[in-house]
C-alpha cells in the first residue's frame, strides 16, 4: 500500500503540510488498496507467503510525513528492520492510523517486526515498490544492507 500512498502524495498539492497530506493519502489508499499475497525469503530461510497490506524495509526509524515506521531501527546495528502489516479488517486498520506517528502500530497483532540482513521479496501479482517516496518498479526485489559503504565525515 505504501507505493500507492506515495503516488497519491506526489500528485497532491501538499498545501496542508506533509503530515496532513500523508494522512489523507493513507486514508485514500486504504479505501482502494487490496491486500496481496507476497512471498519473503529472509536471510536464506525458506520462503514465507503472507497476505500483505504494507511493508517497510528500513535502516532508519522514520518515513514519509514523520511516520515512525520502524521504531526499533538503529542506523549502526548492521541490520535492516522489516515491518510487515498483514491483512486486517478496515476498522482495525483505521484504528492503527492513530498509532503511526508514534510507531506503536508495530505492537498490533497484524504486524510482524523483525531484523534481517537480506530479504528477497516476490509476488505473482503486480506489487509496486517505492524507495524513499519514489516509485522504483515492481516486485521482485532484493534488499541488502551494505555496512560501512557510506563514508561519514565528523
Amino acid at each position: 500500500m505504501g507505493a500507492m500512498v506515495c503516488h497519491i502524495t506526489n500528485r497532491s498539492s501538499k498545501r496542508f503540510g506533509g503530515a496532513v497530506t500523508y494522512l489523507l493519502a493513507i486514508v485514500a489508499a486504504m479505501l482502494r488498496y487490496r491486500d496481496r499475497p507476497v512471498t519473503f525469503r529472509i536471510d536464506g530461510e525458506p520462503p514465507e507467503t503472507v497476505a500483505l497490506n504494507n511493508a517497510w524495509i528500513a535502516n532508519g526509524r522514520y518515513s514519509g510525513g514523520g511516520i515512525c515506521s520502524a521504531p526499533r531501527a538503529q542506523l549502526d546495528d548492521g541490520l535492516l528492520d522489516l515491518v510487515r502489516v498483514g491483512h486486517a479488517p478496515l476498522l482495525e486498520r483505521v484504528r492503527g492510523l492513530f498509532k503511526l506517528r508514534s510507531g506503536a502500530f508495530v505492537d498490533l497483532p497484524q504486524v510482524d517486526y523483525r531484523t534481517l540482513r537480506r530479504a528477497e521479496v516476490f509476488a505473482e501479482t503486480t506489487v509496486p515498490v517505492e524507495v524513499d517516496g519514489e516509485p522504483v518498479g515492481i516486485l521482485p526485489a532484493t534488499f541488502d544492507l551494505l555496512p560501512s559503504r557510506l563514508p561519514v565525515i565528523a
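The first helix runs from residue 2 to 11. The beta strands are 36-42, 48-58, 80-86, 111-116, 118-122, 128-131, 134-138, 141-144.
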